Amino acid sequence: MDKKKVLIVTYYWPPAGGPGVQRWLKFVKYLPDFDIEPIVYTPENPNYPIQDDSLTSDVSDKLTVLKQPIKEPYKLAGLFSKKSSYTISKGIIPETKRQSLIERLMLYVRGNFFIPDARKAWVKPSVGFLLNYLKGNNIDTIITTGPPHSLHLIGLQLKEQLGLQWIADFRDPWTTIGYHKQLKLTQRSKQKHKELELKVLNTADRIIVTSSVTKKEFEGLTSQPIEVITNGYDVETVGETVLDAKFTLAHIGSLLSKRNPEVLWQVLSDLVIENKQFARGFQLNLVGYVSDNVLKEINKYGLIGYTNEVGYVSHSESVKYQKQSQVLLLIEIDSEDTKCIIPGKLFEYMVSDRPIIALGPKGSDVESILKETNTGAYFYYDAYGMLKTTILDHYKAYREGSLQPYPIGLKKYSRKALTESLSKLI
């Protein structure tokens, strides 16, 4: 029997780096195990702010990857300010009071002239190309994944013209995502975003989200079926790793300006001052982009001398850091809008066999998952006492050689198990 074919429309694909590429790279890897043949449609000349060539090893030689050119406004914007264009294209938006005139202008243009986002010009040519391809290749199911949410407009138009099955996958929310408020949107632009969001949610046959918080939000906007399929972990072969000799707390990934828990820096500062033995053995490893605001706060608390700013590394290198660190840090912005954010690295953290300390808003999906899997401790931004006690307990266990987590029920978060759930929807 021939495998069922499904077309996946995604902006992020190797050699793109960062978390956005991982989800569908892994789904595509495992779908053939469930008698589904994936076909990937992606831009030919994208403007990826981060690249990671190591991820290409997960792309099968047998996979059909269709590519069409895309016009990228960030490339044009780079002629005016390369640094600002690069920063904003990564989703890193400076605080309002620190924005330059060119940054304020770029944000206004991005928010009001490119709705839903800067990749909107790819919609029309993609629909024209895919209409012919779908008709000639016996494909009756398409999946679009956003952000960028403009890709859902490709699915919307193909659904309206061909009547095929369309599944819309939301890796992040649309109008309630944190940075939306920073785009200097006019009332008319806000309304346009909401109209497009509603149309997508009510036209797609099925909607996939990565968190139960997003599912609850979308249930207030549509009666279409919504499934939660989280991100997950894959079996990573990185060779033998040895635990750090020092008591390392490591954060893997971007630390944006608002992802800056003063309570954590205060606790670490006090421990360094109060405990000479702790001070001799402690190191804070920051693996990935770190905003100047975060570094200034760390410096304010006298921790720069204990901080190793590693910078961006490949995915395989980041896995090594996860496995060799004594404790892993997961930090989210303390905001109502971030309760639904489950960073992809959480699941890799969970199988790294290292304890996790997470900070974020009350009632988040991350808090629930950590509790359910017994993989770490979750704290709010005002939990000084409990956070200090936990770090001290971890330090004592490290000194005794007994620091380790005792996870339960992780198997359902494996990429293969999650792909099986996806295959049932297809």
Automatic annotation (TrEMBL):
Biological source species: Snuella sedimenti
The UniProt entry, under Pfam families, shows: Glyco_transf_4
Every copy of the Glycosyltransferase subfamily 4-like N-terminal domain together lies at 105-236
Q: What's the protein called, per UniProt?
A: Glycosyltransferase
Molecular-function GO terms, alphabetical:
glycosyltransferase activity
